[in-house]
Amino acid sequence: MSETTCITTAVDGRVATITLNRPEALNALNSTLVTELIEAALAYDADPGIGCIVITGSAKAFAAGADIKEMVDQSYTDMLTGGPFPGWGGFERMRTPVIAAVAGFALGGGCELAMMCDFILAADTAKFGQPEINLGILPGFGGSQRLPRAVGKAKAAEMVLTGRMMGAEEAERSGLVARVVPADELLAEAAKVAATIASKSLPAVYAAKDALQAAQEMPLAEGLRFERQAFAAAFATADQEEGMRAFAEKRAPEFTHR
Ligand code: CAA
Question: What is the pTM of this model?
């Protein structure tokens, strides 16, 4: 395990885990933490030896939002020119799947970070919310756009306009999280799911992630064209032939990630 100022990182086989580590501030996303997180994630994304990334926090907080104390004196112009939080664009465009393993508070920028990941596994202690309205602002890392896509307009509007938090069970019922597990099993379950993803063909995983992303961004007809092209392209990989041959020969595939 290696430690920088505000995160720790660890690699196990083809799975990398980034742990947010500012316990004194409930993992509030200050500029140092965000810079370290994005740098670490992009480095793993560039490494073909890594097939899945897990981002997690502590038992009490995944992240309690952007760092309010750091933002208090920021101006309109500071925010327009990037403020203390540049670099999310690169994070959002990563090819490697990212799982958010969320226990405790995932609020404001913390909820938004979790939603930037491919999916969320939640502990039964997880609490999601966009409480920015209580601070005289609104979500700024994508919450007003991703939350309605995840839970529908009515629930998202209620949460963004009132600041109400949503517990893990409601979050699963509403489609915000993939699955809820007991808190003491969260990290083991996230590691298991990540290892499963990392065992698949890397080009197939990249393409599937891309197509799922397209579903969030494109109209249906365009998304279907995108998928058809990506599906055809999968037949240019060695892993497609290996995957199908292994099925026919009733054996496990040996993907070479080519
Ligand atoms: N920024 C800076 N510091 C934070 C923080 C944040 N977002 N959230 C918590 N902290 C700090 C607290 O100030 C406190 O520090 P001190 O001990 O130095 O006072 C420490 O973390 C522990 O917090 P609490 O004592 O408040 O813990 P609690 O258990 O009583 O309450 C909480 C937990 C309900 C999460 C509460 O801390 C809280 O409401 N936090 C703020 C949540 C929030 O408003 N998030 C949105 C931020 S804005 C944003 O994210 C914008 C965007 O979209 C990009």
Answer: 0.97
